[in-house]
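Trying the structure run again after the queue cleared.
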Amino acid sequence: MAASSARVTAAMIAALAPGPADVVLELAGGTGELAAAIAPRVARFIHTDFSPAMVEAAKRRGTPGVEYRVLDMQAIDLRDASVDGVVCRYGYMLVADPARALRETRRVLRPGGTLALATWAAPAKNPWATRYGPVLIERGLLEPPPPGEPGQFALSEPEQIESLVRRAGFEHVAVEEVAVDFRFRDWEDYRQVVTSLAASLRETVSALDEETRAEVDEEARARFEPFAGESGYALPGVALVTHAV
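Done. Tokens:
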């Protein structure tokens, strides 16, 4: 995931433009990859995640100068106007109320502070994420995500993101597409990655009987094979990186 998201990480850092005197807050920080990239550039970096397990995983990286907190991005436990920048990669799309999370983000940012966030573009632009799940949906084995519900593609349209961010109080908003490239050794490698990233997918697959699971695998693998190359499989995708002030 880190290698595949390298361009997204670079675009987010460029949007944030962190300075040596800045205080930066990371929301939904996961295992601390962004913290490791940004913390050496700033005076103070606060890594947060709603999951205590993720915060512990980030701590194990041992990045110097990082503060770690378990925190709900919909109710940020920081003072008003207390940070210079906020970064969030693939987090706002997963909360129940992204509008509230964005208002909280604007509240803790100082005047002129910067937000850099990333979400995934529409499913059609992300073949890497759509080889397996749609097979289950088409067979009636998995319910499609209801419109407006949190999920991987809940914030996948630039106009939708810009509207949400502006309503939260940001005046200047820019959304850019950033290409990603996911590489896999083989089908088993791909299946392990995508099922590890989506709990609902993983739970649905594990509950299938052996025959049905084999049928689903066969159909999904047929959709995966066209991406074969000389050194494995390369599946493209597109992320949306938003810069707001």
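The two ends are 28 Å apart (CA to CA). Worth checking whether this holds up in the mutant runs.
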